[in-house]
Amino acid sequence: MSIQTTKFIRKPLYVDAVQITEKNFSDMALWCQGEIRTIDGDELINSLNGANPNAHYIRVRVHNPKNIRQTKGYVGDWILYTDRGYKVYTQKAFKAAFDPISHE
C-alpha cells in the first residue's frame, strides 16, 4: 500500500489591529463597540470620561471566545478586527502570532 500526500499551507489571516494604551483606551472602547468595566467588581462604567485604564478593562464582544480572558482588553493588549469580528490578544500572544505587512 502506498499513500500519496499533498502539501498544504494554511491561508494567511489578515487583521486590522490596534494596541490598547492609556491614551487611546476610551477611543478603543468606541471602536470595538465595547463596554468599559471595573477590574475589581466587573461593574459597567457609563461614562467614557470616567474611564481609568489602570482600574478598568474593555469588555469586547468576541465571536466564539475560548475563555473569558479573550473578551477582556487591558492596557497593552491588542484588539483585532477580522471578517468574523473582534478578537483580543495579549501582547505575548500577538507578537507570537502576527507579523506586520510590509508596504513595498
In the predicted model, the low-confidence regions spanning at least 5 consecutive residues are none
Shape call: elongated
- Content of β-strand: 25-35%
Helical content (DSSP H or I, runs of 4+): 10-25%
Gyration radius, rounded: 17 Å
Number of DSSP helices?
Answer: 2
Rounded mean pLDDT is 91
Distance between the termini: 48 Å
Overall SS class? alpha+beta
Our count of domains comes out at 1
Main beta sheet strand tally, sense and closure:
4 strands, antiparallel
From N to C, what is the helix and strand string? EHEEEEEEH
- Would you count the extended β strands for me? 7
What order do the strands of the largest sheet run in, or round the barrel if closed? 3-2-4-5
Structure description:
Helices cover 13% and strands 25% of the residues. It has helices at 25-31, 91-97, and strands spanning 16-19, 35-38, 44-45, 56-59, 72-73, 78-82, 85-89. The model has no long low-confidence stretch (mean pLDDT 91). The protein has two helices and seven strands. It has one domain (16-97). The protein is α+β, with helices and mostly antiparallel strands and 104 residues long. The strands form two sheets. It has a four-stranded antiparallel beta sheet, covered by helices on one side. A three-stranded antiparallel beta sheet has the order 1-6-7.
